[in-house]
Write a structure and sequence with these properties.
The complex is a heterodimer of chains A (449) and B (236).
Chain A (H helix, E strand, L loop, with lengths): L2 H12 L3 H38 L5 E5 L7 H5 L25 H8 L4 E6 L7 E4 L5 E2 L3 E4 L10 E4 L9 E4 L2 H5 L12 E7 L4 H7 L4 H4 L4 E12 L7 E4 L1 H12 L14 E6 L5 H10 L3 E4 H44 L1 H9 L4 H40 L19 H22 L3 H5 L3
Helix pairs in contact in A: 1-12, 2-10, 2-12, 2-13, 10-11, 10-12, 10-13, 12-13
Chain B lengths: L1 E12 L2 E13 L4 E5 L6 H8 L7 E6 L2 E2 L5 H10 L1 E4 L11 H11 L4 H14 L15 H13 L5 E5 L7 H18 L2 E5 L3 H6 L2 E6 L2 E7 L2 E3 L7
Parallel strand pairs in B: 3-8, 3-9, 6-7, 7-8
Antiparallel strand pairs in B: 1-2, 1-4, 4-5, 9-10, 10-11
Helix pairs in contact in B: 3-4, 3-5, 4-5, 5-6
Classes of the chains: A alpha+beta (449), B alpha/beta (236).
């Protein structure tokens, strides 16, 4: 028997009991829809966040911490792994005792072989940003020193990247362009922006004043810093961020905290820094050396793995609902086909009498099951992707309007998983009825009433 | 053409053992038209099923056109049923959702014949049984006699050497039955097909070259060309 003929016969057999077949197909559609939805939406999110993550990151980066344990690691480590043995000097509960860097530490780390430079990260609090020539004031969520090496994967829509030596210059998030009333990012290049910084003394600054009552009496101090716009980034989730050179960011930080201690030995917030490597290949090796010196660190790869792990877990968790639904529907397929074997017993007898082998009979039922899976899977894929597309459209018109590059209906080969899996599940469900049909005694089958 | 030696087949019905075939031995020549008669449960159908390769013997052998059925594996047995023999059933056993043409074509599909060729062959077979104008009718749109002719077309479409018919006129009125008998006789005459018919129908017995009477699984009478011959074994 030719395979194409088997498919044709199986196909026509499938629709003898239309309603039953449709209901059986529908049962597998549910699982396939869920799985397709998961594989359309989650990789979309993952790609988006990965791109975001990479836009201001580099494989040459190790984030280092002054403490022996990475902050939060102790907490993460306590999940699922069970209690660890207590050692003298450990604190019983999770501690948030962050050690701070001193100049000597920085010196030691920069001497490590493979380290090109240690970047400290001044992050001044900015009150608002304002164009010199306009009155409109905009909030700034994030003002930070962004070293050149972290700009490798950053795409600009206008201007050029910020050099480490570019004192007095800045890069802006794309969203400022529209908010300041420009239609084209190019128009903003070369313009002057004023960042206002308000002094908000922190505890160490207050303590140094030594007169607690003076806190309330303190005058509100502000200072305006002028910058020339050199670059506009593409849209990122950091929609109101500004990027500054080290010297400017440090100066603004010191003013904002009302203290010259920022990033000195007296700074109690000096707990994290960025190590720039000579070469990304040496990340693990350098990290190990830094840890041997009594600090902790997280390489680019590790931080990316954390992100990927989160999405991996999410994908498995959500798609397991779909797999479960499919497993349940396989019982429906089994039932449908066992009934079909009963109904067609005489017919199977005739088929055997006129020359069908056991294999042919088994193949016809297996194919019928596979076709149920295929149709269910394809409909599920269509529905799942359709729902994802709908979420995408509605999402981008509402809550996700700022994130152009977030594609919730992500097309990838992973989408073939749902139809593939439903064909496999259905085919497995069809094995028992197929064997049963093929083993029917032709004489008994011919006389079956 | 067909050689049956010491064929034995026993069924169990509850505690009772039924000897469907009890040491049956006979030969059939190419082109013979044989009527197998006997009361219900005497083993006629079992004999037909074993010759057709649908059922196996407990003991003894059946050789058809050089094939010893006992040694054929499923695949070869299927090919034997497809090519060497053709079945005709009392209740036609046509597939109701298929047209006459589809029904006749089915065996050719199992044989792996290309579409165009098998359509032509099936059409020719239907023409031969006088149903050229009924090819696209479904069984429910055909009379009993027409349905049986479709099943004859199905049985002979692959040019078998042997046709095995189980009460082919049993479900038909006498006029339709007559036509079926004519048709079978015609096939034998024109195509030199060997025909074995299990029947209660005297008219078929009259047309036959030879009559085998079976009782309790034994051949108790073997009559050729109207002459009674001594039967080797008698009932106990």
């Amino acid at each position: 028997m030719k395979f194409i003929d088997s498919i044709q016969i199986a196909f026509s057999n499938l629709f003898r009991q239309k309603l039953r077949t449709l209901l059986t197909i529908f049962s597998i559609v549910i699982g396939a829809t869920l799985i397709s939805l998961v594989y359309a939406v989650i990789p979309g999110f993952e790609n988006f966040l990965n791109a975001q993550f990479n836009s201001m990151n580099s494989p040459k980066l190790i984030e280092i911490y002054a403490s022996k344990e990475r902050p939060g690691q102790e907490f993460m480590g306590s999940i699922g792994s069970g209690p660890e043995e207590y050692k003298e000097g450990d604190s019983g509960s999770i501690s948030f005792d962050f050690a701070t860097f001193k100049d000597a530490d920085m010196e030691k780390i920069s001497q490590v072989d493979g380290v090109k430079k240690v970047h400290e990260i001044p992050m001044p609090t900015v009150e608002y940003a304002k164009m010199e020539e306009k009155d409109k004031r905009l909030k700034v969520s994030y003002a930070v020193y962004l070293p050149e090496f972290l700009q490798e994967n950053l795409n600009l829509v206008a201007g050029e990247k910020l050099k480490d030596s570019n004192s007095g210059k800045m890069m802006l998030a794309n969203q400022f362009v529209e908010s300041f009333g420009y239609s084209n990012a190019e128009e903003m290049i070369g313009k002057t922006i004023i960042l206002r910084v308000k002094q908000q003394p922190t505890f160490d600054a207050v303590a140094s004043i030594a007169v607690p009552s003076s806190v309330t009496a303190m005058e509100e101090k502000v200072k305006d810093y002028k910058f020339e716009v050199v670059g506009i980034t593409e849209k990122t989730i950091l929609s109101s961020a500004v990027y500054l050179s080290y010297t400017d960011a440090l100066e603004m930080s010191r003013f904002a905290r009302g203290s010259d201690n920022v990033l000195t030995d007296k700074d109690e917030q000096r707990i994290v820094a960025w190590v720039e490597l000579d070469s990304a290949d040496r990340a693990d090796e350098v990290k190990k050396k830094i840890e041997e010196l009594g600090y902790s660190g997280m390489t680019y790869e590790e931080s990316q793995n954390i992100l990927n792990d989160i999405f991996g877990v999410l994908t498995i968790a959500f798609s397991s609902f779909g797999v479960l639904a499919m497993a349940v529907s396989s019982l429906g397929i089994l039932n449908t086909l066992v009934m079909a074997v009963y109904e067609r017993t005489r017919e199977i007898g005739v088929m055997k009498a006129i020359g069908a082998t056991k294999k042919t009979v088994a193949l016809l039922f297996t194919l019928e099951a596979a076709l149920i899976g295929l149709f269910g899977g394809l409909i599920g894929l269509g529905l799942g992707f359709g729902i994802a597309e709908l979420l995408n459209i509605i999402g981008h018109k509402t809550v996700l309007s700022a994130f152009d590059t977030l594609d919730l209906s992500n097309v990838s080969s992973l989408l073939l998983l749902a139809p593939g899996l439903s064909v496999v599940v259905a085919t497995i469900a069809g094995i028992y009825p197929a064997i049963r049909a093929s083993k029917l005694d032709p004489v008994k089958a011919l006389h079956y009433e | 053409m067909i050689s049956i030696k010491n064929a034995k087949k026993t069924y169990r019905m509850g505690d009772e053992e039924i000897k469907a075939l009890d040491d049956v031995t006979f030969d059939v020549k190419q082109g013979e038209f044989i009527a197998i008669i006997g009361p219900s449960g005497s083993g006629k159908s079992t004999l037909l099923h074993t010759i057709g390769g649908l059922d196996s013997l407990d003991n003894g052998s059946i050789t058809v056109d050089g094939d010893d059925l006992a040694v054929l594996k499923d695949r070869d047995l299927a090919r034997y049923r497809n090519k060497t023999v053709g079945f005709i059933f009392q209740n036609f056993n046509l597939q109701s959702r298929y047209t006459a043409l589809d029904n006749v074509e089915l065996g050719l599909i199992f044989a792996g014949m290309p579409k165009k060729e098998r359509k032509e062959k099936a059409r020719a077979a239907l023409e031969k049984v006088g149903l050229a104008d009924r090819v696209s009718h479904k069984p429910t749109e055909l009379s009993g006699g027409q349905q049986q002719r479709v099943s004859i077309a199905r049985a002979m479409v692959n040019s078998p050497k042997v046709i095995l018919a189980d009460e082919p006129t049993g479900n038909l009125d006498s006029k339709s039955g007559e036509k079926i008998i004519e048709l079978l006789h015609d096939l034998q005459q024109k195509m030199n097909v060997t025909i074995l018919v299990v029947t209660h129908d005297d008219r078929i017995a009259h047309k036959a070259d030879r009559i085998l009477r079976i009782l309790d699984g034994k051949i108790v009478e073997d009559v050729t060309n109207g002459k009674k011959e001594a039967v080797k074994e008698y009932t106990d």
